[in-house]
C-alpha cells in the first residue's frame, strides 16, 4: 500500500472515530438536556399556579371558580408563535389538582376527576413534603408518547391542602430535539468532509514531496541533472539537502576519475605526435621537412589547448544544476557577431551565410553559455559545409520558446553516427581536412540546453525526392 494512502486511511480512521464518539456523547446528552430544561420550566409554572389556586381550593370552588375560568380562557388562546423554524399553534399543558388525600378535584382534560392519584409519585411525594415528579408513557412501547408530570404543593400556611400538577407531553419537545439532532449531524458531516479534504491534501502533499525526493535520488543515481526538490517541510528539506550533499561528493569523485581517464586517453595521440616530431627535429633535417614537423608540433599543441579549454567549459556546465543568471540573448545579433569573427574562414570557403532571424527573437538564460552554445552549432555547420555551400539560420517561435535552426548544405550524417553525435569526444572527420575535432562541441550544446530546460537535435535534410541535401541542427530554449 502506498504511503499517501496509508496516511489518508489513518487520518480517516482517527477523524471517523472522533466524530462517532462525539456524536454518540452529544446524542446521549441532547435529549436529557431538553428534558431538564422543560422540567425546570414546569417547576416554575406549577409553583406559580399552586399559589394562584390556593384561595379557590380553600373555598371549595375549584370546579367553577376564577381559576377554572382563567384556564378555560388560556385553553382557547392561539399563541401563533414561531420558535426558530417550528410553528406553535396550540397549548399542550395538562393541569390537575388533588386534595390532601390525592383525589383529583380538577382536571383540565376533564377525564379523571374523582380518581385517586395518591399512589402517583408526583402527588405522593409532594403530599409528604418532597419534590414530586414523574414521567409516564401513554403507550408503554413508544418512547415518544412519554409525558412529564411536575407537582407543587398548595399550602395554607405550613399545611399542605392539595397538590397541583402540570403535565407536558414529550412530543411537544421532540421537534426541537429532532431539529438539534439534524443540525448536529449536518455539522458532523461538514466537519468530516472538511477534515477528509484537509487530510487528503496533507497526505497528497507529503506523498508528493517524498515522491519528488525519490525521483531526485533516482536521477542522482542515474547521473541525470535534477534540481533539489523544494518544500515538504524542514525535515524533508534537510533530507533533500543531505542527498544533494552526498550526490555532490560522489559525483565529484566519479567525475574527476572519469575525466582524468578520458583526458589521458585523448591526450595520448597529440602528445605522441609532438614527441615524435620533437625527436626528429633534434636531428639534421632538410628545410621543408623541418618546417613540416614544426607545423605538426604547433597544430597538435593547438589541438591540446582546444581540448583542455573545451573540456573545462563542459565540466563547468555539467556540474551546474541551474543557470546563475537569466538575461535576454538576441539571436540575430549573436549570429552577426559570429559571422564577423569567422569572416576569414567563410571567405576562404566562399560560403553564403543566410541570416533569416527577425529582430526581437531572443533566448532567456545565461548569456555566456548561450553565446558559446550557438557559436558551437554555427562552427559545426561551417566545418561540414563544402566550398561554395550555404548556411541558413532561422528562428521560429513555438509557444514560450524560440527554436533556432542552423541548416547547412553538404553530405548526410551516417546512420552509425546519428546516435553518438552528442557523446563526449565523438567526432566525424571534416570534409576539407579529414581531421576530427575534440568532440566536445555538441556535448557542450546539449548540456547548456538541458541546463536551461531546452532541447537540441541534429538531423539530415532530405529534398522532395528523399535525397539528403544537408544537415539541420535545432536548438529550442525559453523565450525572453
UniProtKB/TrEMBL annotation:
SUPFAM superfamilies per record: ATPase domain of HSP90 chaperone/DNA topoisomerase II/histidine kinase, Homodimeric domain of signal transducing histidine kinase, Sensory domain-like
Residues of the Histidine kinase domain: 262-480
- All copies of the HAMP domain together span 204-255
Could you list this entry's UniProt keywords, alphabetically sorted. Answer: Cell membrane, Kinase, Membrane, Phosphoprotein, Transferase, Transmembrane, Transmembrane helix, Two-component regulatory system
Q: Which CDD domains match?
A: HisKA
Q: Which GO terms describe its molecular function?
A: protein histidine kinase activity
User: Which catalysed reactions does the entry list for this protein?
Assistant: ATP + protein L-histidine = ADP + protein N-phospho-L-histidine
**EC number(s) reported in the record:** 2.7.13.3
Membrane-protein topology = Multi-pass membrane protein
Provide the transmembrane region boundaries.
6-26
Top-level enzyme category = transferase
Q: Can you name this protein?
A: histidine kinase
Organism name = Candidatus Competibacter phosphatis
Amino acid at each position: 500500500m502506498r504511503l499517501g494512502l496509508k496516511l489518508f486511511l489513518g487520518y480517516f480512521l482517527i477523524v471517523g472515530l472522533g466524530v462517532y464518539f462525539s456524536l454518540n456523547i452529544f446524542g446521549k446528552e441532547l435529549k436529557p438536556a431538553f428534558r431538564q430544561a422543560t422540567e425546570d420550566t414546569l417547576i416554575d409554572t406549577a409553583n406559580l399556579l399552586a399559589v394562584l389556586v390556593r384561595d379557590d381550593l380553600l373555598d371549595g370552588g375549584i370546579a367553577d371558580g376564577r381559576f377554572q375560568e382563567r384556564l378555560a380562557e388560556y385553553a382557547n388562546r392561539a399563541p401563533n408563535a414561531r420558535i426558530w423554524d417550528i410553528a406553535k399553534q396550540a397549548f399542550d399543558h395538562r393541569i390537575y389538582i388533588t386534595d390532601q388525600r390525592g383525589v383529583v378535584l380538577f382536571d383540565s382534560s376533564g377525564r379523571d376527576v374523582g380518581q385517586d392519584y395518591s399512589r402517583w409519585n408526583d402527588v405522593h411525594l409532594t403530599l409528604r413534603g418532597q419534590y414530586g415528579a414523574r414521567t409516564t408513557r401513554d403507550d408503554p412501547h413508544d418512547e415518544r408518547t412519554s409525558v412529564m408530570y411536575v407537582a407543587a404543593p398548595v399550602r395554607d400556611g405550613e399545611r399542605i391542602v392539595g397538590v397541583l400538577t402540570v403535565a407536558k407531553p414529550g412530543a411537544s419537545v421532540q421537534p426541537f430535539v429532532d431539529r438539534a439532532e439534524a443540525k448536529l449531524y449536518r455539522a458532523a458531516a461538514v466537519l468530516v468532509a472538511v477534515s477528509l479534504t484537509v487530510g487528503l491534501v496533507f497526505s497528497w502533499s507529503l506523498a508528493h514531496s517524498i515522491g519528488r525526493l525519490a525521483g531526485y535520488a533516482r536521477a542522482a543515481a542515474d547521473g541525470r541533472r535534477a534540481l533539489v526538490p523544494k518544500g515538504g517541510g524542514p525535515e524533508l528539506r534537510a533530507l533533500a539537502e543531505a542527498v544533494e550533499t552526498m550526490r555532490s561528493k560522489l559525483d565529484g569523485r566519479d567525475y574527476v576519475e572519469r575525466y582524468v581517464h578520458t583526458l589521458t586517453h585523448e591526450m595520448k595521440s597529440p602528445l605522441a605526435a609532438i614527441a615524435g616530431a620533437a625527436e626528429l627535429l633534434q636531428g639534421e633535417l632538410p628545410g621543408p621537412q623541418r618546417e613540416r614537423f614544426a607545423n605538426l608540433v604547433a597544430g597538435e599543441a593547438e589541438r591540446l589547448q582546444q581540448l583542455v579549454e573545451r573540456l573545462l567549459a563542459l565540466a563547468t556546465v555539467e556540474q551546474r544544476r541551474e543557470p546563475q543568471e537569466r538575461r535576454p540573448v538576441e539571436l540575430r545579433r549573436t549570429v552577426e557577431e559570429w559571422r564577423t569573427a569567422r569572416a576569414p574562414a567563410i571567405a576562404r570557403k566562399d560560403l553564403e551565410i543566410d541570416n533569416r532571424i527577425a529582430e526581437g527573437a531572443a533566448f532567456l538564460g545565461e548569456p555566456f553559455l548561450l553565446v558559446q552554445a550557438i557559436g558551437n552549432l554555427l562552427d559545426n555547420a561551417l566545418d561540414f559545409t563544402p566550398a561554395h555551400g550555404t548556411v541558413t539560420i532561422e528562428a521560429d517561435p513555438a509557444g514560450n520558446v524560440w527554436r533556432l535552426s542552423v541548416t547547412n548544405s553538404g553530405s548526410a550524417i551516417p546512420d552509425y553516427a546519428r546516435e553518438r553525435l552528442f557523446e563526449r569526444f565523438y567526432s566525424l572527420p571534416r570534409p576539407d581536412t579529414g581531421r576530427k575535432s575534440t568532440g566536445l562541441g555538441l556535448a557542450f550544446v546539449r548540456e547548456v540546453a538541458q541546463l536551461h530546460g531546452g532541447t537540441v537535435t541534429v538531423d539530415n535534410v532530405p529534398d522532395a525526392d528523399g535525397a539528403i541535401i544537408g544537415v539541420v541542427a535545432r536548438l529550442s530554449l525559453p523565450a525572453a
